[in-house]
Each structure stands twice: as structure tokens, then as C-alpha cells.
## 1
Amino acid sequence: MSISLVLAAVVGVLFACGVVLILERSLTRVLIGIALMSNGANVLILATGGRAGDAPIVGDGAGANGRMSDPLPQVMILTSIVITFALTAFLLALAYRSWQLQGHDEVQDDVEDRRVASRPDEESLDAGADAELEHTDFDDDEDADPNEDVPPVQVPVTAEHDVVGDRGVVGAEDGEERP
């Protein structure tokens, strides 16, 4: 079983173009990239399925040339087509909704991603978690509270629930603390 050089080149080109398009910011280009990659996967499965033969179910099983087709690659390609269709429908819905809300279908940067990208490169980032431990001196103040810099969390009191405070239970109905 050998794969045709032309089919291997087609698979490579489809995957390469699909990867380039998936890395774009536009959801339309991402959609086209996923379609190209799925078509490349289908051609790959088809090429590795071997030479064509007679239908495996129809007839006495021997066929005219004595070879039967393997139905597994065909089933895998059909499954891949259904999955690609569902993913395409989902991405089309995302692109349409983005177009309705923002007037374009480009994916925006996340605020956290921008913060991480603007962070200066330091040696401690490359060294990993051990570099942070080297700069921390735990022996200076053994009795210090590790949570002293953390602000207290304020929980809103509702009518259905009681909140446990530092000095007891605060009831929602009277607003006073109970032991």
C-alpha cells in the first residue's frame, strides 16, 4: 500500500494553508482554515485507505478481481464530514453574532493576555518557581500572619441566609450578631 505523491502534496498544502488561516484573528478565516484542515484529513484518510476494490457487501465476496474495498476509511471520512459540518455551523454562528454585536468578526485580545504580554522579561520568569523562593526570606518573621496583607471579604447579607462572622452569626432578619 503506497500513497500517491500527488495526494501527499495535496494533504500537505491543505494542512499548511489551514494552519495559517487558523492563526488569523478573523473568525471567517478561522472557519475556512478548519474546513481546509478537515478536507486535508479526509484526503489523508482516503489516500491511506488503499486501492479501490469491489464493494465488500454486494456479491459473493470474491469480486471480479478478488479484492474488496476496506469500508473503515469511508466510514471515518463520513464521520469527519459530519463533525466538520457541526463545527462549521458553530463557528458561523459565532462569527455572525460577533458581526451583529461589534460590526466585525475579529477576536479581541483578553485584558489578562495584554497584561502578561506587557510584563517585562526577567530572569525569574525563565528560572521558574524556584527563583521566587530564592528571593523570599521565610526566617525573618516566623510569627507573622501570612494573610495580613489580604483585605477582608465582605459578604452581603440576604433575607434567606445567615452569615458567620468573626464574633458569631449575623442574622438577616435583625442585622445583629448572635453568639
Note: The helical segments are 5-22, 27-48, 71-102, 111-118, 123-127, 129-135.
## 2
Amino acid sequence: MLEGHLVRCRPLTCPPPLAVDPSPPFCPLPIARPGKPYNANIFFTATGGYSPYSWSQTGLPEGMDIETATGGVFGTAAVEGMYPFVVTVTDSIGKSAGRICSILVREVPDSRYFADRMKENPSRFIRDLAVADGPLQAGRHEFTRDGSNERGEAVGSGVYFARTTVDGKSAHRKMTLVS
């Protein structure tokens, strides 16, 4: 179909209005490091309208862009700063929709030590959940726990407290364990 042509459809066959899908929980985008390729594996998605879609952006830092066919963010930012940008999707009949997002570009040191400790109450230690002694790149990391305490005994269901430490900085959170 060509842009400017009227598209007629029956109410049950019309697609919903075109939109940049708001469900991905990554706005703002994960931090980009200056001079390092951005490999956060971020792809915007669209809903509604008529596929195929074409993607564009305005405002990403110099050296970064969005892949027109997939909505994937890629590139290497050079200058630190906070960059608000607009991502736009255009469908096959020329309708467009956009979303405002942002990305922070800054140097983040590699983490040299990560520890996650589980406690039954703020003072009773249960076990280390995960420890990594080697460098970890900035970003999301997953560790799996086997459900036991330091002695190898099963830990029952309940409310526990976890402390995550990265490079000497700690954060605490409550968690519910269901066995």
C-alpha cells in the first residue's frame, strides 16, 4: 500500500493503532560505556499498524543508532552524558508512532567482587548465595541457588533478607523463599 492511500477495513479486521510497545522494561536503556561497543541486546518492538515496520531515532549519542529493520540499538558512544532520544516506528502504509527514552553514557568500572548473602533475620547468616571473584561487565547477571544452607541442609519457606555487595557497596532487600 502506498502512503496517502486510504486503507479501508472491516472493524474486526483492522489492526490496532500503531505504537512502540511500552512493555519492554528498559527505558531508560542500560548504561553505555564510552568507547566500548554497546551490547545490551536491546530491540524495540511495535504493536498494531501494518507490518513490515521501519525504525528510526533522533537523539542517540554520536556513534550509536537504531537498526531500521529490527529496532535494535547498536554502536559505540564516545562522549559521556545523559541522552534523551525519540524512537520512531513507521508501518508499511506510512503511519508513524514514537516513544521517548534515554540512555546514560558513562564509565562504569568492571566489578571485581560480587557477593549475595542470605539471612533468616538481619543478624542470622544462612549462606552466600553467589560469589564471583573475576571481573564482571556492567549489566545483568544471574546466579542460581540450590536451596540449601552452608551445611547443605534444605532451607524452608519464609521471608529472608539478602545483601548484595559489589565493589564494597551494599544494597539490602527482603525476599520470600517458597520451597
Note: The chain has two domains: 19-105, 114-177.
## 3
Amino acid sequence: MGRYLSILILGVAAALSTTILPQLLALAVSLAGNITPAFGNTRGQINLVMLVVLAWSVRAELSSAFVWAFVGGILIDLFSILPLGASSAGLLIIAYFANGVARQVYRVRVFTILAMTLLATVFLYAFTFAALLLLGNQYDFLAQLRMVLLPTLFYNLVVCIPIYGLIRVVQRRVWAGGSEFAGSLTRAAGARH
């Protein structure tokens, strides 16, 4: 169930990340730019697909996390200028390490989610930046750092905890529904014999 649900959730996240969220973020930044000039000229975005994959990978099996990372990466690449599979490769690495860290830590705390979000954002940005450079695009690294990476880090850190909570609710529903379904099958099979 979670694998099919990934297409729906990640598709909505990718579509929101490329259509509605940039406009809402631009509006919020322009309003904040009137108060704080530091937000005046930024190009950062909320990487909603990365946050969803990260949140799913923390509590799910590794194979399920890989499915979510692969589907999410393909959907990101369909909406961007990146070569198909570039984001998938980066998200697969993020899912692997997030799942590994979560398996080593007894309880995933807020600090752990924030640290993983920070590292995942920097890694995915560097990974996609390298992919764009390999395609022959030229960028000013310091300007990209100041105008894109730092605001993206800030936005991702602000929304990572609500995204994690939402994904936990979805996971509980999916896993509870699967166990109820499996339990009803075993009860029905037992009733026949």
C-alpha cells in the first residue's frame, strides 16, 4: 500500500513544489522583505519532496524508503531541468543514510530530524549543483550559496517538523490498515477450517 501511496503523495508534493509553493513563498518573502531586508532578494525554495522522503525513510523499511526516494526523484526531475535520475540518485543516498541513522538511534527526536534535514538539504543541493555544472551550466557559487542554499536551509528547517508529523500520521494509518487487513484474512481463513 505504501508503494502506491508514494506516487500520489510525492506527485502532489512535486506539483506543489513547482507551482503553488514558490508563489506563496515569494509572497511571504516580499512581505518579510519589507520588515527584514535580509529576505529581500532570495531564490530559495522548500524542497517538499526531499522532506517527505526523509520523513518516510526515518520510520520505514529500507526497501520502502528506496521506492519513495526513486519515485520522488523522478517526479522532481520531470518538473526541473535536471537530467532524469539525478535527483533520484541523491534522494536514494539520503534515504539510505536517514534509514541507517534512524536504525542506530533508539528514538528519533526533534534534534535528529533537524540535523538530518540540514545535512540532506546541503547534500541534495551540492548533488544537483554538480549535476548542473556537468551539463555545462555556469553559476556563481557564492551567489548561489547566499541566494539559494541558505534560504532553502531556513525554509526546510522551518517546515521539516510539521512534514515529519504528517508523514507519521500517514504511516500509522497505512500500517494499521495493513495489519487489520492481514488480521481479517487470518480470521477468515481460520473460520473456514
Note: The chain has one domain: 2-179.
## 4
Amino acid sequence: MPSITLVTYPRKTTAETSRLPPLFPCSSERSSADPVTSLMRRQYHLIYDDQCSLCLGAVGKVRQLDRLGLVELVPLSRAADSFGHCPSTEERLRKQLHLVTSEGKIYRGAEAVGVLAALFPESKLLGHVILLPFIRPLARWAYRIVARHRLKISRLVSVN
């Protein structure tokens, strides 16, 4: 009969565990954050235009899908307060969604939609399709058209 060997690994010391990366490396305020608090933070931050009804409708859908609380929804009007700085210019933030990861990586526009969709079981396939290398240029093109005409679209379509 084969024997089972129990392997144990040494515990990490307090000094090793306190070297967790800050939520946003470019923000000096956040770099000294308590490691426990930074672990409890959400993994993604979605910055959206809170003056756009189409964007508000999309955010409502994200709220429905995000049962695990992975995404913090950050209205553009509060972005500077939430981050201590803005990850992009206000004009650029108004033009497209921005999804910021806890490591500080920023996805914009169609890529933000693809990554966001891939987070949730109901939209995972759509997210992966959007992110395919040969689909991504088409997704960017479609996103630009929708973003450019979002005010007209939101007037034509009832978004709740």
C-alpha cells in the first residue's frame, strides 16, 4: 500500500506579508495602506460617465451580474476622490469606460467591456469573444460608434 507524505510549507512572516502591492502603485497615499484593508478592496474599479443614461443602464446591468462584488462602480464625478488622482484625462474618461484593476492596469472602451463581461458567468463567452485578437478591432470600431452617438441612442432607447 502506498504511503502518504504530508508536506508542510513554512508560514510567511509578518514582514513578508506586509509587502503586498498597493491598490494603485502610482498613488503615494495608497502605498502605505494596511495589507488587510487592501485585500478587502474590490478587484476592479469601473469608471463611468454618470451623466450618460446609456452608461447608467450598462452600470445597472453590471450591478445585476456582479453577485460576488468584484467591481466597484465609480461615477466620473467621484473618480478623483476615489483614486486620489484620475487614471486618465476627464475628456478621455467621458468618451469611454475605464476598468482599473487592483494592480493598476487600465482597460478602456471595448477592452473594458470585454474584460468586464468575462468576469461574470452569464456573459463570460461574450467577453472572451470581444477579446479575441481578430474580433477586437471590430469591437473597438463598434464601441467608438456607440460612444460617439450615445446621447442619441439613449434618447431613442429607454435605458433603465
Note: The chain has a mean pLDDT of 75.
